[in-house]
Amino acid sequence: xxxxxxxxxxxxxxxxxxxxxxxxxxxxxxxxxxxxxxxxxxxxxxxxxxxxxxxxxxxxxxxxxxxxxxxxxxxxxxxxxxxxxxxxxxxxxxxxxxxxxxxxxxxxxxxxxxxxxxxxxxxxxxxxxxxxxxxxxxxxxxxxxxxxxxxxxxxxxxxxxxxxxxxxxxxxxxxxxxxxxxxxxxxxxxxxxxxxxxxxxxxxxxxxxxxxxxxxxxxxxxxxxxxxxxxxxxxxxxxxxxxxxxxxxxxxxxxxxxxxxxxxxxxxxxxxxxxxxxxxxxxxxxxxxxxxxxxxxxxxxxxxxxxxxxxxxxxxxxxxxxxxxxxxxxxxxxxxxxxxxxxxxxxxxxxxxxxxxxx
Amino acid sequence: xxxxxxxxxxxxxxxxxxxxxxxxxxxxxxxxxxxxxxxxxxxxxxxxxxxxxxxxxxxxxxxxxxxxxxxxxxxxxxxxxxxxxxxxxxxxxxxxxxxxxxxxxxxxxxxxxxxxxxxxxxxxxxxxxxxxxxxxxxxxxxxxxxxxxxxxxxxxxxxxxxxxxxxxxxxxxxxxxxxxxxxxxxxxxxxxxxxxxxxxxxxxxxxxxxxxxxxxxxxxxxxxxxxxxxxxxxxxxxxxxxxxxxxxxxxxxxxxxxxxxxxxxxxxxxxxxxxxxxxxxxxxxxxxxxxxxxxxxxxxxxxxxxxxxxxxxxxxxxxxxxxxxxxxxxxxxxxxxxxxxxxxxxxxxxxxxxxxxxxxxx
Lengths: 359, 362
What we know:
By secondary structure, chain A is α+β, with helices and mostly antiparallel strands. Chain A has helices at 79-82, 93-98, 100-125, 131-142, 153-166, 197-202, 206-221, 224-238, 244-276, 282-294, 297-304, 313-322, 336-343, 345-348; strands at residues 2-4, 10-14, 24-27, 31-36, 39-45, 49-51, 59-63, 66-73, 149-150, 174-178, 185-188, 192-196.
């Protein structure tokens, strides 16, 4: 048996009272006991002793299952006492075991792999999600759009004609004109496409609409919206580790920067579809020109392009212009009467809810 | 305790000592996609607590990273599912034209978040006290904070009514409410600060609109002078544009600066009053940082973050804790033999809820 103390440099709290005591410690290979004025406590097993970390130069130990029990030494404990003790945790048990730098390399590699998978997986997973699931999700989201879809028999026929020309083999389940004053069109899960009324108002010809519609059909064909949903879900789970703000910003940036490649693919589909249908791509190019003026000019757009989810309008414009064949005789996508039916769909449809009552 | 010339609280840490902890925490947090921060927080607190002396002994932080992590996971389950429903369900509801229902749901969830922030504030304090040991004794509370959440809701609502005139009352009474349910060892905390003591300082906020009117007049005149003096500028339209942009920027800086200064002046008074109203058994607490000390702290924070291009952010915890401890004092005697172990139930997991709402500070 070996002993140390009692002296001022060894102290003890029993966890029931705040009084500081100076015990004599006696120990053997199996365990140790403390001798106080009030009597002897122990013997305690070495394995129950828990070294406390971050104690500022002192060595302090706790006892398993006795909160507040402390045995402290002013500096390091006596050598043959310390020989029985486990090491103090520093970065956390797992990291201490393999070393800081190896842990950093390991975690870094795992993190990179996780981020890569999360960014890529939606593309791998989305095709395996049954179309019927996507359809019910899309139907639940869109429904009848709160009675704001404009339709007359003539506009229906015109839209159908566009769909036949641009998306023959694409599983489109609905193309609706929504009575909402936004210059935009969206593809939603389940093969739904919504064209907002204001976009039709801004378009100067049916061929402009055809280009935009074909772009959205491209999204439906590639199941982009579903991929986007899966990605957002995955990112929000993985980036949950950071605090809300950092996670949210990174999430938004990644989700956006990624959808840019999907946007370009949809543009390529649009150009192909127009070509197949013998519709001129030039009106669509002009439409992007008009859009780029609306969004504050090329310079501003270029500087923001990495933040925006759509490719820069001027680049898109060039791509459409480039695909036009010189002196080729294109056919218009719709007759003037059919185009008129679409333009006036929202004023002709007497059952549609007015745009200003969105809520 | 102040009678022998030494203050009851002292801080002995140095930023050079703390730097290795701060930098390894940052590194590990990045490579683990943020998940290390629970363990990092624990290391930071172990350092800060162990370098904080109260009378004759340093404090001890016994919380663990795992506890904080479990708290985080629980909150993810509790709030994550409703959140996902809100984000996706709300879109669907609006698309389908159930706008009123969507807005109602949004308001309801906003209210829940409001209530839970109150609960979170309470539970954060309770968790921290239950993991803080001194002389082998810890603090805590037997209250779980669900009732405090309601108190937080109605007092804040009443407080912001009447042009916000009752905000000081809400803040002070909530502080007292919270601390009166806490204890250390066998002794309950006693918090009896009066809202009247901070009210005059709060009235500064009502001077703010007047300050702004005066400021905008001055700025407007400077702007006009700038335009008038702009002979070198080729086109008058452009000069006006530049003057206007300058005016807007200067106004924004002035407004934020003035508002921040008033808030700081009020908060410094608030903190002195509420801490000064606290006692534990025969110990009476005191906090002596004045508005000028808070200004120095915040300006120092801003300077540090700017000069280090943001890296200084990882030292803010350290600075704030040091500020808090060096300005905190206590007088009176505490009997060690009467200070026995707390019998309060210690919470099993960390401050996930507060973490989720980003409630920080002390």
